[in-house]
């Protein structure tokens, strides 16, 4: 699969890819930001850890959203980006302070 | 592998650019204008065309605040700057919505309401929120467009095989398709540092809107995690009203202490919390005029005694975030950079238009009759010349509507906004009906509206170009000159489009 | 006055540096000077171009210190790049002027 025609083949695949790039990419980045903020808060004041992790999050998002268009196997995308989003969802909804 | 990587980036660049191009153009256009939001304010609010005050006195302004908003829970006084000579008082009304009134800096007297949102309340917020009030939808759409812009810049570099070899190449004399693609590459690659830094810094401004969960989780032991984050990271002091009347100590000594604390620099604003209450307090935020950083240096004083209650300065990483934000906001005094930003923003607009034209050119022969092609054709016209036309209509409406204008229950300021959106909508419809011929018509309309705006400013305010130039009153003179320059560009484009059309018609007839 | 001169120097050096870098590319050399530049000359043009850009940074830092100077320099580079591209298209004379030194 090396042509743009092949890339666009099957609207279902295209929709999946775009969804993974946008939503999956965001979920993955959010997981990375939350984890990084947690790790950094061991050595930095919490607000500093949060702001640094969140700023780096945009670069993570940029990287994975481009990768979502380059990676040919949708399954890999589902595993990494879907898995990352799931991790973010678990972390956000299981945090003790969050109702 | 390399080939397929480039192919996938080409696909991404083509389709993401197409889907979000219209939104990106609107953001770039409004962002370019926002660089001069205060100057647009002066043009659209003639009553604020004042000299900046020699010295600052807060007491008359406070007296006005007591009259204008006696029951408000807080008053925020934006102090005069070299670009905004008036004082602006913000206060929440009974429903909690923020209102503002401009005050004359020396006397504190309210200036006659100008009935307009102008640059700093319409054009600037449009740039980052699209004025979509539902939730934070506008912020998220702009954020999505921003991320898309970053990825388009990267994929564009990948698609462009020889970005370095072609760095300075602009073959304007070749056929339209070649010249157009060269211009797209030129504005994209030479402008890349500006576009990348501006897009990324624009996203960084709203870190906590786009990644709120980071703070929520980091402070999950607090009852109000977001509040705790803001307190620690951005600094905030608050205390409830006492419920008993109290008097406010004079603000001048507090101002002096603030200046002493901030190496001579004054505050950007003074905010009085719970005015008239025994537990009132005064917040001052350091001015940004002499630094890139949108600082969070704050001082809080007790309203009764004038004693310092709380002092804040952000920590290094937060300062870095505020520095990156400040690069984007350009609230500091630096005219060369202001103009360079304006030019850079417009080069981004050119990059987006030429991208659209490339998409259309590549498909015109095969798909010209198809509905999807026609949709994109109209979309391009409406989102490019259409928004420019709508902005000019906004300026013209500002000069034509009488101050007391009301219509169908809408205030004057809302009427101006309606004019903007209706003209924009009309431009889309015109684009879909007239197809590529709509460019020419809209260019002529842009030229006429721009000249009309300059003429109307002269007639309705008396500040015609000769006078403002002679007096060196640059906010208004500059705006008028830019309008005329825009009109000239529009006329030039319209004439080029007419020639181009004549050539095309001849080709059809004889070819 | 000094501020204005320094600003002019920032832009002039950025423009000159970009013009030298452009001439180090065969296509532009051929269009402006004719013939091919030759390897040694390309190296000299690149090195010289980089030095002009660096000089532009020096003026920017002198004028505005680091916090405003670096953004000013970056924007001057962008503006210089656009100016050189437009000059190559319409007024190659403007490129010759700043590269007329013997190299």
UniProtKB/TrEMBL annotation, chain B:
Q: Membrane-spanning residues where? A: 15-36, 137-160, 181-211, 339-360, 372-397, 417-433, 445-466, 472-494
**A Pfam family recorded for this sequence:** PepSY_TM
Q: Which UniProt keywords apply?
A: Membrane, Transmembrane, Transmembrane helix
Q: Does the keyword Kinase apply?
A: no
Question: What InterPro entries does UniProt report for this protein, alphabetically?
Answer: PepSY-ass_TM (IPR005625)
PANTHER family cross-referenced by the UniProt entry: IRON-REGULATED INNER MEMBRANE PROTEIN-RELATED, PEPSY DOMAIN-CONTAINING PROTEIN
Q: What is this protein called?
A: Peptidase
UniProtKB/TrEMBL annotation, chain C:
Q: Name one Pfam family in it.
A: DUF3325
User: What residue intervals traverse the membrane?
Assistant: 6-23, 44-62, 68-88
Keywords assigned by UniProt? Membrane, Transmembrane, Transmembrane helix
Note the InterPro entries from the entry.
DUF3325
The name this protein goes by in its record: DUF3325 domain-containing protein
